[in-house]
Here is the input.
Amino acid sequence: MLPRETITDEQLIELEALLNMKLGSQLIDYLKQYGKLPLEYERDVNGYRQGDVKECSLVRETMRERTFYPNVLDKYIVIENDGFGNLYLIDSGDNMYFFNHETKLLEDLHKSFNAYLEEIIKGSN
Here is the structure.
């Protein structure tokens, strides 16, 4: 597993400013505990590993996708791209959504980020 630093409170504030939204408590806990989910879970869940917050996958992917879908993804953070252009998103209340890039529709996925993570971890066992 790649080395990682623990994200600091100052970096969390910077992350929120870069993304222009508040992070939910479960997402904050994930960033503090894991930083970024290890690839051994066979899913590439965005997060923070180390270094400049502006370069972390959470910011990079969210800002990139927001350029493709302006005014649609402004209140969401990209947690995962399924590799086919569809996105798993989170809002500031830790609710999870699936964004279909073809229909450009959001579907409710989970009422909590923790439930989403549990599904990923169970699916890899």
